[in-house]
Design a protein that fits this description.
Pfam families: 2OG-FeII_Oxy, DIOX_N. It is built from nine helices and 17 strands. By secondary structure, the protein is of the alpha+beta class. It is globular. The structure holds 2-oxoglutaric acid and fe (ii) ion (FE2).
Length: about 350
């Protein structure tokens, strides 16, 4: 299938092709949410030698997970030039000839490298609706995959994936402690030495009628923590206290959201945040997304130490099975996470 990028380039589009109309009439269209300021976590304080400073950042981290499920990490130590190079190389990837990219086209979520355009969803009447985005996704851990073009892609991804894995481990140590557990509880219980890490790049070209289209419809992410970078163009919205809010990034920050397996592990204390990507009619938006999850075979359950205080609120499920079932769950069906709830 042709990419959304090619569609935009091939025609002087004045209106949205009907396949991409998520909202059939402008009355029900997307209304951009108001902007909200998010909790900010200073990552450098997690390795502070001052116990009070460390205790404070762990408390802030716990609050951010409990009240928002979404925060920005600053002073994360990932070099700005690595991030800039990654955006450049991902842009080059989407600029490659269609035939090159389509080599990776598949609908099988287990393929290690996948390119898709306008991934389909089905609305209530079972009609297909396409997302206004092109998409590249591959597994980087426990096994490392990466397209071999453009040049330097592999090296950059390899470095970014190592650094973000380290960031995820350290944040999860703080999160373990914020739940009153041993620092390495999550690392051991989720087998993070073999943790699943994915790299995804979303490419949202300018859209002629952005209010009728959707980049990604509302969803929660599978995994523990997702990291997101954007190329300076906004579009991410999160649900907070029942309302949609637009979120914007501080310079040099990384967005982090709590995901489904962290909700299960924390026995519901930390909620997996609902979010969506809206599109605009002016600028191409690129986001680089790294979901960090348990090892593929980990059976995820609420953490044992938390069950002294309350009974388990979620049933067990193997992580990879969860990923696969979630992928075939349709928009109007009950979300998989809700189906795991025991009461
Ligand atoms: O691009 C965005 O802003 C959201 C991406 C996202 O939610 C995802 O890839 O899971
Ligand atoms: Fe997401």
């Amino acid at each position: 299938m042709a990419s959304v990028k090619a569609l935009v380039q091939s025609q002087d589009l004045k209106s949205l092709p009907s396949d991409y109309a998520h909202f059939k009439d402008s009355q029900k269209s997307i209304v951009a949410g108001p902007e909200v300021s998010l909790p900010v976590i200073d990552f450098s304080l997690l390795s502070s030698t001052n116990p009070d400073e460390r205790a404070k950042v762990i408390e802030d981290l716990g609050k951010a997970c409990e009240e928002w499920g979404f925060f920005m990490v600053v002073n994360h130590g990932i070099p700005e030039n690595l991030i800039n190079s990654l955006f450049n190389v991902c842009n080059e990837f989407f600029d490659m000839p269609e035939e090159e990219k389509l080599k990776f086209e598949t609908t099988n979520p287990l393929y290690p490298v996948m390119v898709r355009s306008g991934s389909t969803i089905h609305d209530k009447s079972n009609q297909t609706v396409l997302f206004w985005r092109d998409y590249l996704r591959f597994f980087v851990h426990p096994e490392f995959y990466c397209p071999d073009k453009p040049q330097d892609f592999r090296d950059l991804i390899s470095e970014y994936s190592q650094r973000t894995r380290d960031l995820a481990c350290k944040l999860l140590q703080g999160i373990s402690q914020s739940l009153g557990m041993e620092e390495d509880y999550i690392q051991k219980a989720m087998d993070l030495d073999h943790g699943t890490q994915i790299f995804a790049a979303n490419y949202y070209p300018p859209c002629p009628q952005p209010e009728l289209a959707i980049g990604i419809p509302p969803h929660t992410d599978h995994g523990l923590l997702t990291f997101l970078l954007q190329n300076g163009v906004g579009g991410l919205e999160i649900q907070h206290e029942g309302q949609w809010f637009h979120v914007n990034a501080l310079p040099n920050s990384i967005f982090v959201n709590t995901a489904d397996q962290l909700e299960v592990l924390s026995n519901g204390k930390y909620k997996s945040v609902w979010h969506r990507a809206v599109v605009n009619n002016e600028k191409t938006r690129i986001t680089l997304v790294v979901p960090n999850g348990p090892s593929p075979d980990t059976i995820v359950t609420p953490a044992a130490p938390l069950l002294r205080e309350a009974p388990a609120a979620y049933g067990p499920m193997k992580y990879m099975e969860y990923v696969n079932v979630q992928r075939v769950t349709r928009l109007h069906e009950k979300p998989l996470l809700d189906r795991l709830k025991l009461h």
